[in-house]
Design a protein that fits this description.
Layout: H1 24-34, E1 42-43, H2 54-69, E2 77-78, H3 84-94, E3 101-104, H4 107-117, E4 125-129, H5 134-147, E5 150-154, H6 163-171, E6 178-184, H7 196-205, E7 209-213, H8 225-228, E8 232-236, E9 248-252, E10 284-285, H9 287-302, H10 304-322, E11 328-330, E12 342-347, H11 353-362, E13 364-365, E14 367-368, E15 372-375, H12 382-396
Parallel strand pairs: 1-13, 4-5, 4-6, 6-7, 7-8
Antiparallel strand pairs: 2-10, 3-9, 8-9, 11-12, 12-15, 14-15
Helix pairs in contact: 2-9, 3-9, 4-5, 11-12
The protein binds pyridoxal-5'-phosphate.
Pyridoxal-5'-phosphate binds near residues 107, 213, 215 and 236.
């Protein structure tokens, strides 16, 4: 019974033009045609790791099989080669140049490559926010213990009401000893979308190095890395971009590459052209990258803006339901400009265990921390969100 759900049925369906944001029946068909999610699963945790469409799974598996046969003369790997075709396709989608984009496995790795690659002196200050993911904060803490840098956190108002409030919360904390500003474009627990471009612009005007943890950006919201104006950007693809797990990117601005050391290298790194020097990590599984190319094709067929419109439409629906529940403290901004596909809240109850247990019974999967975060993607049904709120009501009234 279970097994049936793991075998893609309409594995190779070509995507018709995507439905309008509120066309639930149209999007249900996309779910049925393109995903192997069983009907009984309400998967609301794309923010941790996304669901991979059947076509992408197939492209990945096919390449793995082809590589295993050595029927071609090509290594079935990446980790040494420049992978220009793959980087060029990704760079086009992400709005930057191939020369500034390196392939990695995830945002965690990209953040560590950025942090470890920077020359900072004891006493240099890195300003973060109090909303950072452990991957970003952990990397900077390692640098603190090892290199004697100072870390400071700007307190972010939750929920914020305007982009200006966020710009002020960060920029007001810059001091003469601050060298680096490192912040998440979309926060992990609260799903808050920062006005990244304005913040980077202001920080660069103050002479700061700007590092953006953009783990949630690729595939969740339309944007161009070049427009952000940051020095370095860490992204995961496997959350929102419909790619196989273990796929990420590191962007390093062209004129910043001479200031960022690579961390994992092979001989030849001194002369490696462009961002290639950050991605020579040794033998890796190229099949995943064929999956990335297939995900890009699917996104192109559906239309990136249409995808975003649906994701955001459902997030707005989640928000509208959450604010009606008196015992929820909604952490998401009432301003829809300040979130994309994630809505978060706390429950005013001391123990979440009965809720987690009931959600597990109902096969509703959200982020389970000391906050609840609901992610919506194109496979999300409005009824999945309703099921979450019905379960909440059943548990807490
Ligand atoms: C803001 C942020 N940064 C980094 C990460 C780490 O992502 P990954 O596990 O894909 O490296 C996450 C994961 O949720 C995140 O929310």
């Amino acid at each position: 019974m279970l097994r049936r759900h793991f075998i893609p049925s309409a594995a190779l369906a070509l995507a018709a033009p995507a439905p309008a944001a509120d066309d639930d029946a149209g999007w249900l068909k996309i779910r049925q045609d393109h995903f192997s999610l069983p009907d009984w699963r309400a998967y609301l945790n794309t923010g941790s790791v996304g669901a991979t469409p059947n076509r992408v799974v197939k492209a990945t598996n096919d390449y793995l099989a082809k590589g295993a046969s050595y029927a071609t003369d090509e290594y079935p790997r990446w980790g040494y080669e420049p992978m220009e075709t793959h980087r060029t396709a990704l760079a086009k989608y992400l709005g930057t140049s191939m020369a500034e984009l390196a392939l990695t496995h995830n945002a965690t790795e990209s953040m560590s490559l950025i942090v470890n690659g920077l020359d900072l002196k004891p006493g240099d200050e890195v300003l973060m926010t109090d909303q950072e993911h452990p991957s970003g904060r952990g990397a900077w803490q390692l640098k603190q213990d090892r290199a004697g840098i100072r870390l400071r956190e700007a307190r972010i108002p939750i929920p914020p009401k305007t982009p200006e409030e966020l710009i002020e919360a960060i920029l007001s904390q810059v001091r003469p000893e601050t060298r680096v500003l490192s912040f998440s474009a979309i926060t992990t627990h609260t799903g808050l979308l920062f006005p990244v471009k304005q913040i980077c612009e202001a920080a660069r005007a103050k002479g700061l190095i700007t590092v953006v943890d953009g783990a949630h950006m690729p595939g969740q919201i339309p944007f161009r890395i070049d427009d952000l104006g940051c020095d370095a950007f860490a992204g995961s693809l496997h959350k929102w971009m419909l790619t196989p797990p273990g796929t990420g990117v590191l962007y390093v601005r062209g004129d910043f590459q001479s200031k960022l050391w690579p961390t994992i290298v092979v001989e030849g790194w001194r002369t490696a052209k462009d961002a290639l020097k950050y991605m020579q990590l040794g033998c890796n599984n190229r099949a995943e990258l064929e999956g990335v190319l297939e995900a890009l094709r699917l996104i192109e067929e559906l239309g990136p803006q249409r995808i975003y419109d649906r994701i955001h439409h459902l997030a707005q629906y989640t928000y509208s339901r959450a604010i009606q529940v008196p015992y929820l403290k909604v952490l998401t901004s009432p301003n829809p400009q300040l979130y994309g596909g994630m809505v978060a809240f706390e429950v005013d109850r001391p123990d979440y265990t009965p809720l987690w247990n009931k959600l597990a019974q109902r096969k509703v999967w959200t982020l389970r921390a000391n906050k609840i975060r609901i992610s919506s993607h194109i496979h999300t049904r409005r009824s999945d969100i309703d099921l979450f709120f019905d379960t909440l009501k059943e548990v807490y009234g």
